C-alpha cells in the first residue's frame, strides 16, 4: 500500500474518541482552542469528521462552541463541578448498592487487592499510582452494579471533572484522607452489605466535595 492509498478517517466516532482521550489525558488544556485544520492533521481525519466529532463532544460537555471563534476545551467552574459530584454521589451510591448484591468471590479478591495496593501507594507516596487505583475501584463498582444507564451517566460526568480531580488528587495529604474512605467502600461491598456500600460512597463523595470547596477557597484567597 502506498502513501496515496492511506486516506484520512471519515468516521466521526473514531475522531471523537481520539480527541476525548486527549482531553482526559491533559493533551489539551481547559480553554484551549480546537482548530479543525490542526485536529484534522493531528488525528489524520477529514475536516467533516472533525467537525462532527466536535459537535458530539460539545453534547458531552467536554467542548464548547464559541460564536465566530470555533471550538475550545470547555472550562468547568468549581460551582458546576460540585453540582456534578452531587449527582455522581446519587448515581454511584446506586452502583455500589447493586455491586454489593452482585459481588462474587473472585471480585471480592480483586477488590481487596485494590485496597492493599492503595495502602502501598499511599505509604510510598505514589500519588499517580493511587489515583489510577482510585479510578479502577470506581470503575469496578460500575461494572459490578450491572447498571449500564448509570455507568453511561458516570462516564459522561467523569470527563467534565478531570481537571478538578487532578487538582484535588495532588493536594498534600489528600490521599491519606481518602484512603480510609475507599477502604470503607471496599469492606462494605465485600461484606455484601448494600446499605453500607451506598452510605460509604456517599460519605466519600461528600468528603470530596468538602475538599474541593476548601481548595477553591484557598485559591480565591491567593488571588
UniProtKB/TrEMBL annotation:
<dbReference type="Pfam" id="PF07729">
    <property type="entry name" value="FCD"/>
</dbReference>
<dbReference type="InterPro" id="IPR008920">
    <property type="entry name" value="TF_FadR/GntR_C"/>
</dbReference>
<dbReference type="GO" id="GO:0003677">
    <property type="term" value="F:DNA binding"/>
</dbReference>
<dbReference type="InterPro" id="IPR000524">
    <property type="entry name" value="Tscrpt_reg_HTH_GntR"/>
</dbReference>
<dbReference type="Pfam" id="PF00392">
    <property type="entry name" value="GntR"/>
</dbReference>
<dbReference type="GO" id="GO:0003700">
    <property type="term" value="F:DNA-binding transcription factor activity"/>
</dbReference>
<dbReference type="InterPro" id="IPR036388">
    <property type="entry name" value="WH-like_DNA-bd_sf"/>
</dbReference>
<keyword id="KW-0238">DNA-binding</keyword>
<keyword id="KW-0804">Transcription</keyword>
<dbReference type="InterPro" id="IPR011711">
    <property type="entry name" value="GntR_C"/>
</dbReference>
<dbReference type="InterPro" id="IPR036390">
    <property type="entry name" value="WH_DNA-bd_sf"/>
</dbReference>
<feature type="domain" description="HTH gntR-type">
    <location>
        <begin position="9"/>
        <end position="76"/>
    </location>
</feature>
<keyword id="KW-0805">Transcription regulation</keyword>
<protein>
    <submittedName>
        <fullName>DNA-binding GntR family transcriptional regulator</fullName>
    </submittedName>
</protein>
